[in-house]
Specification:
By secondary structure, this protein is an alpha+beta fold. Helix content is 34%, strand content 21%. The longest helix has 13 residues.
Length: 115
Amino acid sequence: MRNEFVLSGKVTVKDRNGLHMLTAQRIALMANQNKSTLTISHKHHRANATNLLDILILAAMCGTDLDLQACGEDAELALVSIARLINSKAKLEIAEPRPILKTPHQQAERYPSKN
């Protein structure tokens, strides 16, 4: 039988956009890679850190205090990783704009068939 323990901590959302989709996605991906069970709580809401929708439902705005909890063999690493992700200012990488092709003729000119 393994000895498992629970670690907990608090973190304040510092991103002016709050806990948004990109950060929540990174948290969920990271949480899925850990062996520990991770939860994030705010007021009466509790989110499974592996579930993107659960994290977004917390609706954590800038300045929100979140309670973190991890149970498992890599609990300490998991808590530190989540705290860093929440406090990081995740930047969106914007792709180069593509022209909008309005007519079939424009599309045919842009993407000629290989016949």
